[in-house]
Structure formats: structure tokens, C-alpha cells
Amino acid sequence: MFTEWNRQIARHIKAACLGLGCVLLLAACANYGWANRDEPSAQAGDAQTVDVSTILIRADQGLDVVFLTRALVGAIQREGIDNAAWNAGRAAAVSVSCAVEDAEVLGMAQHMVAHITLACMVHLPPDAPLASLQARGSAAASTAFAAREVITANQRLEELATLEAIERLAPRIAQAIRAFEPLTIEDQVQ
Fold first, then answer.
1. Which fold has domain 43-181?
2. Which of 32, 92, 129, 133 could form a disulfide with 49 if both were Cys (CB 3.0 to 4.6 A apart)?
């Protein structure tokens, strides 16, 4: 009798732990937005969306890719492409992917200069051409930093240079997107 009672308690504890685990998992999904994300079938009908991928950087660069990618989306939207969105999904008609290349920070005495090349690709559907764009951004500062602040200054200068490159590239990205005009149903019928 004592062992049967222990087995029943063990079953109840397992069920309670499983239920608690499910509740915590659902709460985490809701907190991070996974539960609210649209189904792929719901996105499939939105062919006008412009998908902006996360900006790629080298692992040793301490750049804030979230900040820079949001800045890229904002710059593209300011150029009149209101439907640009970060990680919009595979159903998007146009996608933009960018990578930071040739990043360098030069220092001489108390003057530092950062040069960044940002390369972006505008991917259109298979029947349309692919646009490849590049822009160089620079940022300079006179510094009197302590040694521990130099790394932070380098990263900040690289971010400023990347932001400058984003602002230079955004009009060209918008122009490449505007050059792609999908046919409407009426155009396809005629």
C-alpha cells in the first residue's frame, strides 16, 4: 500500500512538472514574440514586402548589428520604401542583404579615423536583375582617451562610419527597388 501511494504521488508530481514546463514555455514564446509571429501562409500573399536581412560583420568587430540593421531599415523607409521590414520572411518580393567590408581604424597621436565599406545586394525575383551596391563611410575624431577607452572609441567610430555608409546607400537601394515593378493582374492578362 505504501508503494502504491508513492507511485501515485510520483505520477502527480510528473504531471504537475510537465504542466508547469508547458506554461513556462508558452510564456517564454509569448514574451519573445514567437507565438505572435505570422504563419508563413499568412505572409505568402504579401508580395510587396521588402525583406532587410541583418547586417553581417566580422566576429572581431564589436558593432551593434541590431542598431545598424534598424538604421538601415529606417533609412530605406525614409527614401519612400515604407514596406521595408527587418526579417520580413521568404515571401517578400525583394530582399536586401548587407555586409561590412574593409573596416579599418587608423590612429595618429590624438586623431582617429574609421573607414568602412558597406556592400549591399538587392535580390529581386529570378527574372529580374540583381543589384550590387557599395558605399564607403568615414568618421573621424580627435581623442584624448585613456587606453581602456580606445576600444570603445574604435567601435563608436566604426558605427558612425557605417551609419554614414548606410545613409549613402539608402537612396541607391530605394532606386533599385523602385526599378522593380511587378506586373499587376491586369498587365498579365493583356
1. Double Stranded RNA Binding Domain (3.30.160)
2. 92
Q: What is the pLDDT of residue 75?
A: 93
Bridge-based pairing of strands 111-123 and 131-142 is antiparallel
Q: Distances from the Cα of 161 to the Cαs of 18, 118, 168, in angstroms?
A: 51, 9, 11
- Whole-model pTM: value is 0.63
Q: Which of 118-122, 138-142, 186-190 has the highest mean pLDDT?
A: 118-122
On the CB side of 174, how many CA atoms lie within 13 Å of its CA?
Answer: 19
**Residue extents of the structural domains in the chain:** 1-37, 43-181
What average pLDDT does range 142-162 have in this prediction? 69
- Secondary structure element (H or E) that encloses residue 165, with its range: helix 147-179
Q: Is the pLDDT of residue 43 over 50?
A: no
- For residue 53, which of 34, 77, 70 has the smallest C-alpha distance? 70
Q: What's the rounded Cα separation, in Å, for the pair 100 and 120?
A: 9
Per the CB < 8 A criterion, the answer to whether 100 and 61 are in contact is yes
- What's residue 78's pLDDT? 93
Q: How far is CA 118 from CA 25, 69, 72, 106, in A?
A: 39, 12, 11, 18
